[in-house]
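Hi F.,

I've been meaning to write this up properly since the lab meeting, where we talked about keeping a consistent format for the predictions we share between groups. The idea is simple: the sequence comes first, exactly as it goes in, then the structure tokens exactly as they come out, then a line or two of notes. No screenshots and no reformatting. I'm using this chain as the first example so we have something concrete to point to.
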Amino acid sequence: MVTINVAVLLAVVVIWWLRRRTEVRSRFDEKLTVVIDLALGVLITPTRAGEGIVNVLGQLASGVTQTGR
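Output, unedited:
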């Protein structure tokens, strides 16, 4: 039996989708890209890697706000 991790599958879809030429995208394509990206984010966030990404982005945002003062 073969199992497919949904997050990995969505990551492949996002990479494939974003490699397309930008000038041929319609509004529907843009909305679909946003929905797929949000779904990927929801699937990745509860994992260890996702928590690490959130921590790094939080530290980066904190550093940017500190330098802006």
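Notes:
Residues 40-64 form one domain.
Residues 19 and 39 are 19 Å apart (CA to CA).

If this format works for you, I'll send the rest the same way.

G.
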